[in-house]
Amino acid sequence: MSRTYRIAVVGGDGTGPEVAREAVKVLQATAAKHAFKLELQDYDFGGERYLRTGEVLPANAADELRKFDAILLGAIGHPDVKPGILEKGILLKLRFDLDQYINLRPVKLYPGVECPLKDKGPEHIDYVVVRENTGDLYSGAGGFNMRGSPHEVAIQTSVYSRHQVDRCLRYAFDLARRRGKKKTLALCGKTNVLTYVYDLWERAFHEMGAKDYPDIKREYYHVDATCMWMVKNPEWFDVIVTGNMFGDIITDLGAITQGGMGIAAGGNINPEGVSMFEPIGGSAPKYTGKNVINPLAAICAGGMMMKHLGEERAAEAIEKAVMDVTAGKLKSLAAGRMGYGTTEVGDLVAERV
Ligand code: IPM
Ligand code: MN
């Protein structure tokens, strides 16, 4: 009996639809080999739709998407729309409405990929950042006082509940156990300055670790030091857990150490609900329609999605195919310098799964 997965595909803006298409191509090739079926449905959420209709996201979008097994997202962000409108109105709104409280971002250097870190290779860079995805400075708490006057005050507050912190930590501890590598979970915080929010994180971290995860080693790093060690000694890390804002920042640093936005993928995960997988880069408007953007990040996001859906072997096949292509085919991961076009890179991976 064949397993069927219903997937919502939100291509989004700029090069988003192009990379999502290649991810779908690879997923279809994988499905054929691994005895599952995909039922895909496209959604046109994004800048074009907003400019045409004035609506950022239909009111029922989250309810509609909840009916699927997972969501594959291309990219959100349009040059003709003021920054923030689409990002907050589509990407963040879906993350919040679907309560995707984990942003899972693997940092893994594949063979053949040029690494900007001196003397570091694939054996040194293989860890996962668990970024909390609902709270912190992203909570929306804050506002202006006397806006536009010389005395204007702007406030934006980091907000975390114990519940939010606990569920994120639990996911991270479980992941460190499941990976079974160094069995180490590093909390990335700022307990020397953010003495409320990261005090809460640190207490929760040690309480949960001592009680339920004695087999997992606990480490703590301030966020600034984390950045330093991610460059100097990335091999120290196994799983890093952190709040939303620090997680946003350190995962861009992590991405560049694994070859950049052409390869970095992430998952917005609700372990009890519907999750959404995306390349972590933007919509790259200047490359739109030129068939030069690198689709590997979207393809890897598709692989993460299949792993999340329980298709471990399919996910491994996709990762292995991507590694074959980075090791043996591509000249570079950068848009326009791969030695192949977007669709050809999709073909190369698809014929290897
Ligand atoms: C990311 C992005 C988003 C974020 C933006 C586009 C809202 O930078 O997914 O990392 O800050 O989370
Ligand atoms: Mn980001």
> Which distinct ligands sit in these coordinates?
3-isopropylmalic acid, manganese (II) ion
- The CATH homologous superfamily of the largest domain corresponds to Isopropylmalate Dehydrogenase
Radius of gyration over alpha carbons?
Answer: 20 Å
H/E series, N to C?
A: EHEHHEHEEEEHEHEHEHEEHHH
Please explain how this structure is put together.
This protein has helices at residues 16-34, 47-53, 61-65, 85-97, 162-179, 197-212, 223-232, 244-257, 296-308, 312-328, 342-350, and strands at 3-12, 36-43, 70-75, 102-108, 126-132, 142-145, 153-156, 184-189, 217-222, 239-242, 265-269, 275-279. The chain is of the alpha/beta class and 353 residues long. It has two domains: 1-100 and 267-353, Isopropylmalate Dehydrogenase; 115-258, Isopropylmalate Dehydrogenase (3-Layer(aba) Sandwich), CATH 3.40.718.10. It has a ten-stranded mixed β-sheet, with helices on both faces. The longest helix is centred in the first third of the chain and has 19 residues, at 16-34. The chain starts with a strand and ends with a helix. Residues 248, 252 line the site of manganese (II) ion. Manganese (II) ion (MN) is lined by residues 248, 252.
